Amino acid sequence: MREISVNQELIFARLEEILRDIEELRCFQKISLEEFKRGKNFAIAEHYLRRALEAIFDIGSHILSRIPGVRPSSYKEIALLLGENEIVKEEFARDKLLKMAGYRNRLVHFYLEVKKDELYSIIKNNLSDIEEFCKFIKSFLTSLKG
Q1: Closest Cα to residue 60, out of 146, 145, 130?
Q2: Domain parsing of the chain, residue ranges
Q3: pTM as predicted
Q4: Which of 31, 101, 109, 137 could disulfide-link to 35, CB 3.0 to 4.6 Å?
């Protein structure tokens, strides 16, 4: 791994935020789809997932901005460049992080198209992908200290 200098305090603060957001989302894993569709559950879940995804790409953008010549122009490019630059495994970047970038864009730009069933499914089945990202970043930060 080449020498790069990142603001670890900023990155750790974002990681903590992601983990808090995941904890808030975990409560929705314990309820039925029918209950999820009632009241404000969908809006609350959408908020926490969007925040977690924003923090993921804030971290990625920050790290990549410290690598000479690397200037991503989209969230999907951030995802792929994190893999190409060995910040996360390339397979993870292609298979998981790229989808997270697409869903972040969906939540922000096509929010009217987001359905309760799809958000519920992501919360039930994909929060571990976000946790895996956090582990990759912690491992990357540890490698910088060495």
Answers
A1: 130
A2: 8-145
A3: 0.94
A4: 31
Reported CATH class of domain 8-145: mainly alpha
Radius of gyration of the chain (CA): 16
Contact 79, 60 (CB under 8 A): yes
Please give the structure tokens belonging to residue 12. Answer: 């750790």
In SS3 terms, the chain reads as CCCCCCCHHHHHHHHHHHHHHHHHHHHHHCCCHHHHCCCCHHHHHHHHHHHHHHHHHHHHHHHHHCCCCCCCCCHHHHHHHHHHCCCCCHHHHHHHHHHHHHHHHHHHHCHHHCCHHHHHHHHHHCHHHHHHHHHHHHHHHHHHHC
The pLDDT profile of the chain, 146 residues, written as one tens digit per residue, is 457 899 999 999 999 999 999 999 999 999 999 999 999 999 999 999 999 999 999 999 999 999 999 999 999 999 999 999 999 999 999 999 999 999 999 999 998 899 999 999 999 999 999 999 999 999 999 998 75
Task: Enter the tokens of residue 111.
Answer: 């929010």
97/92 Cα distance (integer angstroms): 6
